[in-house]
Amino acid sequence: xxxxxxxxxxxxxxxxxxxxxxxxxxxxxxxxxxxxxxxxxxxxxxxxxxxxxxxxxxxxxxxxxxxxxxxxxxxxxxxxxxxxxxxxxxxxxxxxxxxxxxxxxxxxxxxxxxxxxxxxxxxxxxxxxxxxxxxxxxxxxxxxxxxxxxxxxxxxxxxxxxxxxxxxxxxxxxxxxxxxxxxxxxxxxxxxxxxxxxxxxxxxxxxxxxxxxxxxxxxxxxxxxxxxxxxxxxxxxxxxxxxxxxxxxxxxxxxxxxxxxxxxxxxxxxxxxxxxxxxxxxxxxxxxxxxxxxxxxxxxxxxxxxxxxxxxxxxxxxxxxxxxxxxxxxxxxxxxxxxxxxxxxxxxxxxxxxxxxxxxxxxxxxxxxxxxxxxxxxxxxxxxxxxxxxxxxxxxxxxxxxxxxxxxxxxxxxxxxxxxxxxxxxxxxxxxxxxxxxxxxxxxxxxxxxxxxxxxxxxxxxxxxxxxxxxxxxxxxxxxxxxxxxxxxxxxxxxxxxxxxxxxxxxxxxxxxxxxxxxxxxxxxxxxxxxxxxxxxxxxxxxxxxxxxxxxxxxxxxxxxxxxxxxxxxxxxxxxxxxxxxxxxxxxxxxxxxxxxxxxxxxxxxxxxxxxxxxxxxxxxxxxxxxxxxxxxxxxxxxxxxxxxxxxxxxxxxxxxxxxxxxxxxxxxxxxxxxxxxxxxxxxxxxxxxxxxxxxxx
Length: 698
Known about the structure:
Number of helices: 15
Protein name: GAIN-B domain-containing protein
Strand content: 25-35%
Main location: membrane
Low-confidence stretches: 1-28, 34-56, 233-239
Mean pLDDT: 84
Transmembrane segments: 677-697
Keywords: Disulfide bond, Membrane, Transmembrane, Transmembrane helix
Pfam families: GPS (PF01825)
């Protein structure tokens, strides 16, 4: 059989078949061409995936400039381009896909873009007022690899901004042949801005609109614009109810345009009607979307009888469950995402999942606890949350979603005591013990990892601002914060933290830490993992944060990968198995650190006696994969195995890990694969023989 298979696929046999019959030759050529196309496509896909795994740049606000040209104070940021690599020469700054500036990196002091300078007439691209500065900014470099950029959204909180559009059926770009299409659109944008400001939306304070695009349609022009509203409500709502105020403003504007409010000026409304009739604009077809989030909504889901679900307010990118908290028969949560962006406004996506099961008593109790948040003292919520989550095997994905909402609210309270922080982390530790299927579903449907990291970030941030030191040890993770100042006669600084195991290999509970200063010895023999920051970074941060609070160094050590997505996009290997290893979250007061001239050194203890194939140092990026989070290698390099530790060197602060993989025995798999190949060959030979025989007989 093996000899027959070799003969079948040999070059000589293929040539013989082609010579014997024109039809067979054509089919063979077609198959060969198809094979080459498929091979090229597969190679392109693999290479694209490998290149797109690079996360290139991110924008942060490093300073703010105050502007009063609007009649009220507006903070306009100074943006800084951050990269995880240094091998580039040119920087390009963009806003909403428009190139603002470009040049050698030495041209931009500290990689900064001062937005306030765009309000002057000197730049090639400038804006008339601060409201037009709102939008997405990002920077790119001439780095050789294809890169993913993280965009920075600048918006002015004091102003409600809506993305709108309408069709003007009685208008066109005109027939002036001396102007090209871009010049015609620019003129039309200016005309519409003036008319909308002085007629259509003149009941709002000026400036009240910015036309972003005009495109010709089969009949008329489609006009897209931003609408700005600053009508003050009294009393002003708290920040967590900002969407309520946003919706009230939105409803007022639509009611005015549709003559459904008593606040209308009759003469002005007549002017609106005349202008819209002239342009062929139907007032009821003017669409406005919030750029803040999605308003409360109701939908019907299939069933006998159909069920109505109420979806709460959600901010852009947020995943929510309905107030009914129902689930499918297999326990999956019914969810819905508030999609869209600042360009087009917030749009509800389609509901995901089936509402087949009513909420359990546990789900209802958790939902009730979340709905009453803020009415009672904090210990009430923490104690009750502790009781409700005591039996983790009963938790479903809807339960985890609500628990994360409660933890997010609790972590946003800066007055939490150390005891309350410890109890909150106890709940997180319990969630880590979810059964495997529930954990996988939570990561896939409710952005589990990112929301959990946001809770931890809030705790660390408030601990820094309040100069509180946090130390928590649980079964699956450890949290430690410490001031970098060392009170000794000799000036010294804490630049690292070592985690010492408790003696039980399967838990971090009761583990201890040792703070590593510039002059201390490292306890390598007993450390599970440790890191060292560049001393110059710590000293610089101490000076920067001194006016506000002491500088703190933070570590969160996770026992394994269970709370994170698997690094499947990083490890392109077959027949390999990833070995569970710790994950280390390192941060420092003052925010992220990028482009470090001296790298951060991370050390992970080698606790395995297995043969490891090509260790890879990675970092977790919460903004990857539509903000679901993912792993990348950029900015990190593997430093080898030394003194029993896998060493990683990274030029930024992040969440780090080292991927250890072993090659498992695949002989049984290869035997099954070989057998199936031989059987397939036999079937092919029989089929080919019958085809040739039938052809000869015909």
